[in-house]
Amino acid sequence: MSPSPQSCLSRQQLLAAIRQMQQLLKGQETRFTEGLRVMKSRLSTLHASLAKAAPEPPAVSCPALQAPADGKKFGTKYLVEHEVHFTCDPGFQLLGSSTRMCQANGSWTGQEPRCAEISECSSSPCQNGGTCLEGLNQYKCLCPQQWTGAACQYQAQTAPPAWSVTDDPAFSRQPRCAQIDQTQHCSCEPGFHMSGTAANGLCQDLNECEVYKREGGPRLCTHTCVNLPGSYRCACPSGYLLLGDGKSCEDIDECALSQDNCTRGTTCINTGGGFQCVSPQCPQPTGNVTYVKTSPFQCERNPCPMESRSCHQAPKTISFHYLPLPSNLLTPTPLFRMATAAAPGRPGPDSLRFGIVGGNNRGHFVMQRSDRQTGELILVQSLKGPQTIHVDVDMSEYLDRVFQAKHVSKITVFVSAYEF
Predict the structure, then answer these.
(1) Which are the contacts of 230, defined by CB distance < 8 A and separation ≥ 6?
(2) What's the whole-number mean pLDDT along residues 54-83?
(3) Largest alpha-carbon pair distance within the chain?
(4) FRET pair for 236, CA 20 to 30 Å: which of 36, 38, 223, 261?
(5) What is the mean pLDDT of the chain?
(6) Could you tell me what percent of the chain has a pLDDT over 90?
(7) Which residues, by range, are in coiled-coil regions (predicted)?
(8) Using the 8-state DSSP alphabet, how is residue 8 labeled?
(9) Helices (H), 180-301
């Protein structure tokens, strides 16, 4: 069945409909252009009025701070919310505030720090009745007659040892004697000394480990000295290997040698004298804030709802870091660096703020800027092991003074029991 002629538009009707649509679009375009012109005009007026307004007051700053005598200062920024940290040289203790922050009223928080000399004798270092004498950054012990050593810790031998000083025959020898000009001359092998009288003399082992412990003697071994008949050897603690020089100890990397027992899902971290199996976890969901693990040592925040301010201010990334350290490491020493990097095609932050935001021993560290895009965590007080310390640092990014994002690094420090 063919369509009815009345169901199709004629050529004239179609042209009229197209002209009508063109007129309608032209009207819409005119109204849109007029709207843009009005918006531009209003923005120009607003810009001009702001430009004529009073200039923004300069950022408040605080008076410059100096390092205390016999101490050091960390931090050179004196603007509001910036921190300055202080430490004392070895032999001195800090009195006052170790950290001061510039306040909005132009004054610093806390008390002015000063470094007071530590009394070396206050810890009673002399043992067995010894008398402590103060010196310049050191002390000396006057020992009773029967004691010796830097801290009066060793018994002094007031008479030559009897020939029966040890029951082990390996530690005694018969002397080698010769008759010269009707006189008997006796001598001992290296590592032994003569004890007793000429008639019943005996070559007794010379305990090098004890001799060289005395004040002024060289340190024979990095860790432990083991006395041997006529000699000695050095030993290292478990988890360390004796080096070719026969005295130094080197840590064994159990992780690299696959000598660990870490289970699947954990990662082996080598430490001084051992290892740790770690498996860092992302924070549990809180409100709109949720995280996903993007690598074994990093979590990233999932996209935030546009209206959730608390979500946008939560850390965008959380990374985990593990640092093995020897005991009593010399300070100050940088331990960790934190830097920013802009994504391709996006403007990077023009301002950064660094800080220590958590941990169980913050007083041993300071966080300071090392250049425009980098901050450093610095150890300023020695750590004695064995112990495990946690410290959390953050980096906040700003663009045109507007907060953009925050990144947190959770650092675990494994301090060895030994200084090597």
Answers:
(1) 173, 189, 190, 191, 192, 205, 206
(2) 82
(3) 157
(4) 261
(5) 82
(6) 32
(7) none
(8) S
(9) 208-211
Task: Provide Rg for the chain, Cα atoms.
Answer: 38
The strand pair at 92-95 and 172-173 is best described as unpaired
CB 330 within 8 A of CB 378: no
Taking CA atoms, 45 is separated from 31, 53, 133, in Å, by: 21, 13, 81
> What are the C-alpha distances in Å from 160 to residues 23, 60, 189, 193, 194?
124, 77, 18, 10, 9
Give the model confidence (pLDDT) of 98-140 as tens digits.
889 888 888 999 989 998 877 777 777 888 877 776 655 567 7
pLDDT band at residue 409 under the 50/70/90 scheme: very high
Token pair in block for residue 217: 């003697």
Q: How far apart are CA 119 and CA 317, in angstroms?
A: 46
Number of Cβ within a 10 Å radius of residue 336: 18
pLDDT for 278 beyond 70: yes
- Which secondary-structure segment (H or E) carries 41? helix 11-52
| C-alpha closest to that of 329 among 274, 381, 273, 390 | 381
Residue in 320, 309, 288 with CA at minimum distance from that of residue 301: 288
Which residue has 């560290």 as its token pair? Answer: 365
Alpha helices in 173-316 (DSSP H): 208-211, 309-313
Give every CB contact of residue 341 below 8 A, 6+ residues apart in sequence: 348, 373
> Which amino acid appears at position 170 of this protein?
A
Of 22-26, 159-163, 205-209, 248-252, the range with the highest mean pLDDT is 248-252
Residue with structure tokens 């032999």? 91
Tokens of 94: 């800090």
d(Cα 256, Cα 402) in Å, to the nearest integer?
A: 45
Give the pLDDT band of residue 160 (cuts 50, 70, 90). Answer: very low
Question: Does residue 78 contact residue 62 with C-beta atoms inside 8 Å?
Answer: yes
334 pLDDT tier (thresholds 50, 70, 90): very high
Q: Which of 223, 243, 225 is nearest to 416 (CA)?
A: 223
Q: How far apart are CA 284 and CA 318, in angstroms?
A: 13
The SS3 call for residue 147 is strand
